[in-house]
Design a protein that fits this description.
mainly alpha; 9 helices; about 75% helix; about 0% strand
């Protein structure tokens, strides 16, 4: 017969332990919460997070690195002017590297526009650039005759392909999750600060404290002293 009351007491005690105690709620420090919220507000005012800035720098590195490799390839083939005229003005899909350079420019413009200027928080833009890059490079490797032109026939397509997928991985697994986590932390801290403001009333400001004027108290004491001094001594 004692088993039922014991079970009821255990269930009641477990429910009381699961609920947050008043001591835990009052242990919230409003100053720390406000400092954290101000730090999040400062990040929002900067306009772009640190991890997103790193991503934009990597996209810029992608363009500069492909440009550098293309310029080296132009010099190796017998001079920049002659090779540039042959690859740009007399463009041939099967032997020119100019389209790989344009592909890097295309990635740079789309990604910087989407994730630096528009501050997009979705993966569709980089999915589009990576899909276009992968399809174009695969078609170029299959159809063209780049492998017969030396080491650059392997280097430029492979590096361009790898950089495009590194950008996709970095955005999808670093930039977007970290920004979402910071936003959730900001919302949690803001909600906790609102609850702490209700539980901890604000300290009275200096204007709310007052004291009787000193002149009035001083004048009463002076008048009493004068009355005592004017009384005749018996």
């Amino acid at each position: 017969m004692n088993r039922v009351p014991n079970d009821a007491e255990n269930a009641h005690s477990s429910s009381m332990e699961s609920c947050p105690s008043l001591r835990d709620v009052h242990s919230i420090n409003p100053a720390q919460l406000m400092a954290r919220i101000e730090s999040y507000d400062g990040r929002e005012k900067k306009g772009i997070s640190d991890v997103r800035r790193t991503f934009c720098l990597f996209v810029t590195f992608d363009l500069l690195f492909i440009t550098l490799l293309w310029i080296i390839e132009l010099n190796v083939k017998g001079g920049i002017e002659t090779t540039l005229e042959k690859e740009v003005l007399q463009y041939d899909y099967s032997s020119s590297y100019f389209d790989i350079f344009l592909l890097a420019v295309f990635r740079f413009k789309v990604l910087i526009l989407a994730y630096a200027m528009c501050r997009l928080r979705h993966w569709w833009a980089i999915a589009f650039t990576t899909a276009v890059t992968s399809a174009f490079l695969l078609a170029k490797v299959i159809i063209s005759q780049l492998f017969s032109q030396g080491a650059f026939g392997y280097v430029l397509p492979i590096i361009s392909f790898i950089l495009a997928w590194i950008e996709t991985w970095f955005l999808d697994f670093k930039v977007l999750p970290q920004e979402a986590e910071e936003e959730n932390r900001f919302l949690i801290a803001q909600d906790a600060s609102e609850r702490a403001a209700l539980l901890h009333p604000g300290v009275l400001s200096d204007g709310q404290f007052y004291s009787p004027p000193e002149s009035v108290a001083g004048s009463d004491e002076d008048s009493e002293e004068k009355q005592d001094s004017e009384k005749p001594v018996v």
